[in-house]
Amino acid sequence: MTILLFVMLGLFVFMMFRRNKKTQQQQAAMQSKFAPGVDIMTSFGLFGRIVSIDEAENKVVIELSPGIEATVHRQAVTKVVEATPEEAPVVPDDASSLTATGTELPGVAETPDETIARLNKEDKKDN
User: Fold this and answer.
1) Dihedral sign (CA 105, 108, 113, 116)
2) 35: pLDDT strictly greater than 90
3) I need a labelling partner for 38 at 20 to 30 A (CA). Which of 13, 22, 54, 60 fits?
4) How far is residue 2's CA from residue 8's CA, in Å, rounded to a whole number?
5) With contact defined as beta carbons under 8 Å apart, do 21 and 38 qualify?
């Protein structure tokens, strides 16, 4: 029975060290991606772009918005944000999107008197 207890304890310690080693490897892989111009997220939720890295002091200068910079500890950077390609909106080359085709735009055909009547009905429903 004592042997089983020591085996379980040894397995527990082994799994704990293995997990710590895996976490350290992931952290090292992420920090190897650090370079000026990379978009990042800090542990306290700020998003920004790396401006410079000071290896000796373990500091990273990030640009939060144009002209606004912050200096944080290197370990505060928890995630490298991958840029997702945004689709450009489809813009027609003519004015066809400015006119309604077949369907009326909501609220366009309503006169001011009809609008007042509709709002009064909605107000009565709320009471």
Assistant:
1) positive
2) no
3) 22
4) 10
5) no
pLDDT of residue 124: 78
SS3 label, residue 93: coil
* Cβ atoms 55, 8 nearer than 8 A: no
Tokens of 94: 């003519």
Helix (H) or strand (E) holding 80: strand 77-80
Given a contact cutoff of 8 angstroms between Cβ atoms, the answer to whether 49 and 33 are in contact is no
How many Å apart are CA 102 and CA 94, to the nearest integer?
18
Write the DSSP string, 16-57: HHHHHHHHHHHHHHHHTT--TT-EEEETTS-EEEEEEEETTT
Which tokens belong to 55?
Answer: 């290896």
Amino acid in position 32: S
pTM of this prediction exceeds 0.85? no
